[in-house]
Write a sequence for this structure.
């Protein structure tokens, strides 16, 4: 949540409450072993895909993806 907040403040735009409302769900999916992810293999045929219908909450995904190695964390700011 801290990283999401910092990203929104640094960018001067974004919707913090929507991102915060997804935090527990995303942590459960990505750190709880629910979602099948392959950070080094983005086109892996067995990976799960998540569609975020409220796009203004997508900020919540970026710190998690960076932490899991999908891209460098220094790209967040």
């Amino acid at each position: 949540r801290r990283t999401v907040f910092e990203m929104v403040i640094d960018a001067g735009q974004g919707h913090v409450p929507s991102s915060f409302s997804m935090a527990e769900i995303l942590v459960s999916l990505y750190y709880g072993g629910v979602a099948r992810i392959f950070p080094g293999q983005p086109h892996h045929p067995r990976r799960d895909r998540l569609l975020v219908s409220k796009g203004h909450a997508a900020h919540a995904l970026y710190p998690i993806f960076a932490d899991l190695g999908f891209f460098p964390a220094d790209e967040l700011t």
